[in-house]
């Protein structure tokens, strides 16, 4: 009932006010906690191209190395808007955090980079190896799915919990045999270690989504800020598609990559502002994984009702066609 009332209030607020376009009034401030990576290309481009300002927003950006850190910052009150994957969203939903998932903005495959000397040529060869992953993220779910596909369990390997930026040094030092993570850490590893590493063929095992999440209280108090933020991302999406070379330059500079290094993996990222089957499937898959592995808060016995944390009203007010999902 509480969620229904909030949705109704949001719909009314969005109908009563203009949805985009800055006027002569002072820009409205909001704080973005962002995973600084190509997966955040849309907000990176929106900031660089002044698209937030065109919507009347002054967006202060704090950068993090994972979406979990970004969402934790928002939950803790250190920022207003987070870019984050489905893993932290599901964890927060299962913990009863009053978050509001307002849009997806990107999805891409998680990958595995291995040390050549470890002689890992197929996923079955992972048996007995030391594999790094990042706990609480899509990397962990991907690792579980990857082992399952290989007919292995966590008991058949040694799992090492590392931050993405810690994985390459560990692989170079020989303390792990492989690592499971997202780009650009895979590309960085290939560049740094060259012939000493091998990219395992795991395409299609697990796609991580990247999304926009706020707290429900913030959305209730600031529906227009959220709507304008999403409008800027939609404008960035169009700009990125129309100017891919320039977009790569902007993103590579922002994340500390060379454009020629980003170009080979650019098409790995699918940039689309929306809420659809891709986002819902990822949320449900991650929730089921938490149940299967007992990696969930005490008392949780089922996949959460994601209708409680999904708030499509701001995006629907901008473009109803971008909201296309069923929960059952």
UniProtKB/TrEMBL annotation:
The keyword Transport applies. Belongs to the bacterial solute-binding protein SsuA/TauA family. Residues 41-243 form the Solute-binding protein family 3/N-terminal domain. SMART domains: PBPb (SM00062). GO terms for cellular component: membrane; periplasmic space. This is Aliphatic sulfonate ABC transporter substrate-binding protein. It is found in: Periplasm. It comes from the Bacteria. It holds the Pfam family NMT1. Its main location: periplasm. Keywords: Signal, Transport. The keyword Cytoplasm does not apply. GO terms for molecular function: ATPase-coupled transmembrane transporter activity. GO terms for biological process: alkanesulfonate transmembrane transport. Residues 1-22 form the signal peptide.
